[in-house]
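Z., the sequence and structure:
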Amino acid sequence: MPTALSVNVNAIAFLRNRRDLPWPSVEGLGRIALEAGAQGLTVHPRPDQRHIRFSDLAVLRKLINEFSDAEFNIEGYPTREFLNLCQEALADQVTLVPDDPSQATSDHGWDFRKHQGFLVETVAELKALGIRISLFVDGDGDEDAMDVVKEIGADRIELYTGPYGGCFDDPQKASSTLTLLARTADAARARGLDVNAGHDLTVANLPGLIERIPYLAEVSIGHELTADALTHGMAETVRRFRRSCGQLV
């Protein structure tokens, strides 16, 4: 089964929010992405709404409902407000990240041992609503941490691939980083967990990731995909990333 592509529209919303104007349209570009074959949309509604606004969620949920196989992935730190947003937006998947509200972007995974009790309660609450749960993890090769993820009750992990993406000019470091990511992924899979990935993934580095983790269920990509769309247009960019995911020849 080819790796699914979920288009993260946060960067589009961030650009829109630079002016008090409705463009670029998050809904409009999300529609183009889905029509080009993306399997879903991802958002990260931060408390300050600096990119995705809470009001965007209902609009995007309605859009996704038009595409029978598309999913809505909502990621964020599980405050009560965030959990309520996930319920109201009927998220198909929730990716829990350990972000401080002041962070510019997600840049590390959970300390599962430290936050196990909190995550057990949060995951149980969301799963009772029929939502698939993914937990953001450091791809550092910590195999024992996957035992804790399994105990927490998550369905998936999402590998933080920022360090891998940051090795674009250092093939040797990229190779060693990929080895650690794969060790984490293999440990998760051995425990019955599915594996997603996200952060700084590109058309160029996706094939190497998928070659080493061929069972990768989904990638969520925003920054580079949005940057590429400035050159190639959203539809062609989605097709380019789908090719890198093994969906198109």
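The chain has a mean pLDDT of 96. The longest strand covers residues 132-138.

Let me know what you think.
H.
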